[in-house]
Design a protein that fits this description.
Blueprint (H helix, E strand, L loop, with lengths): L8 E7 L5 E8 L4 E6 L1 E8 L4 E8 L5 H23 L2 H17 L6
Antiparallel strand pairs: 1-2, 2-3, 4-5
Amino acid sequence: MAKVHTSKIELNVELDENRIPEKLNWTAEDGGVSNAEAKAIFLSVWDAKAQESLRIDLWTKDMPVDEMKLFFHQTLTAMSDTFMRATQDEKMTATMKDFCAYFAEKLDLKQN
């Protein structure tokens, strides 16, 4: 029997006296990431038993608003790509991509 490989992803959150995130760091050894700094983290977990999405949305108090807007846009775009890979629903993926373009346009974001 083949040995099962377990991969660990670790998030560390340093809080101020009011429990507001000051520092976010993450490690994913299999991905070559060790204690890397982040300014924001959006984590979604599917609870199949409860049939609901659980979330952790964190950002440091010094995260600039313009970077947050870019982070949201890139996250929405990545979610569109993931939706396509997971469902093969081309029509809805195109609709999601249209919204991402609209989002970028309304926020005057430069698209890469």
